[in-house]
Every structure is written in structure tokens, then in C-alpha cells.
Amino acid sequence: MSSEQIGAVDPQHEASHKFDYFLQKCEDQGTTVCRRKVLALGCGDGAFTNALFHHEAHVTGLDCSTKKLADAKSRNPNITYRKGDAEHLPFERDSFDVVIAFGVWHLFDRPKVLSEASRVLTEHGTLLIVSEKVLSANENTETAPFFPEEWYEEWEDTKWHINNQWSVEDVSSKWFPEKTFFQNDQKLNQFNLVEVETHYNCITLQK
Question: Where are the domains of the chain?
């Protein structure tokens, strides 16, 4: 069985399914991206921005990696991408309706990003912060508390108001290889596969 024949793991299809489901859950919680100007911080290879695009968002992706931005652009050339960092956003005041930090908030100088997000968001704009956790079915790990206490203190100190918070659980359940098996035309049953689940904690803030 060749790697083309296996078909058990299709990263692009899996990412599309996962993010479509996630965005629908956000919609259910009152956070819509359709026809809104959306900035995705730390957009990486563009999987999430591509999902935003297909949900009719007017999306811009920001990342500091030239390679990741090139990968993102090749995935969907119709999306606007900018190189830059979240602490110094290269955008004018009141440029976006929604700013999203998907799985990257812990990487930032958060007070600086809060200040920049406040500047580029419109008057009633929304900051959506998402924390991602992937669990293996053969682990006994529990999902972490919503967010670290210091994050709540930072939001309070900088006068951001919590609009809503929610969890999205069991976004996808799929068999993934515990180690690489796409080599030497080897058979799938020679490798140990594990089932994984993706959980998200989400919060929306308004200035």
C-alpha cells in the first residue's frame, strides 16, 4: 500500500473539517465572521484563514514567517497576507471588526497585543482568543482550566470586557500515526495509530 493509497490521514481535509465545525460553534455562540473584516494573528500556513475565507469573512492573515506566509498564499491566493508581528500591527486604526488569536496567545507580549488590538478594532469590535488542546484517546489527561488567571488579570487591567466564553469539545476524532509511516511503501498495519480529540477554550473580549 503506497502513501497515495492509504487515505487514512488527509491533513488538509481534516483541518478544513475541524475549522468549519469550530466556526459554526462560534456562530452558535454569537460570534460571526461572515462579511466582517477579520484579522488572524499568527496565521501560519493559512489553514484557519482559508476556513474563514470560505465562511465569507473578509480575512487578513498576519505572520512573522516568510515561509509560512508563502505556504498560506499558495493554499489560497485570494486571501490577503501581511508579514509582521502582533505587538506592532501594520494596520490603520479601526481596520477590523474581529481580531482572532487562534492557539497563539501564549506566545505574545500580551499587554502590547491588547493595546494594538484595541487600536485596529472598530468601536464595537471583538477580540476572540482561542486556546487549543489535543488529547490522545490513550491518555488520561483532563482538559486544562479555561485560561490562566494572569490572563484574566491582564484583561481587567487593560479595561477589556468579557463578552462570552465557551468550550468546543471533540472537534475531530481521527486516527493519526504515532510516527511517520509515509516511507518505503510500507504497510499501514506495521505502525501504531492513535485516536486524537481536539478541544478549544474560547473567549470574546470587547474594548
Answer: 3-206
How many contiguous H segments (helices) and E segments (strands) does the chain have?
6, 8
* pLDDT under 70: residue ranges of the chain: 1-15, 134-145, 171-196
d(CA 33, CA 97): 9
Distance CA 187, CA 2 (A): 8
What angle, 0 to 180 degrees and rounded to 10, lies between the N-to-C axes of helices 110-120 and 149-157?
A: 50
* pTM confidence score: 0.81
Q: What is the pLDDT of residues 109-134, one digit of tens each?
A: 999 999 999 999 999 999 999 998 76
79 close to 73: Cβ distance less than 8 angstroms: yes
Residues contacting residue 148 through CB under 8 Å, at least 6 positions apart = none
Which fold, 3-206? Rossmann fold (3.40.50)
Please tell me the predicted confidence (pLDDT) of residue 5: 33
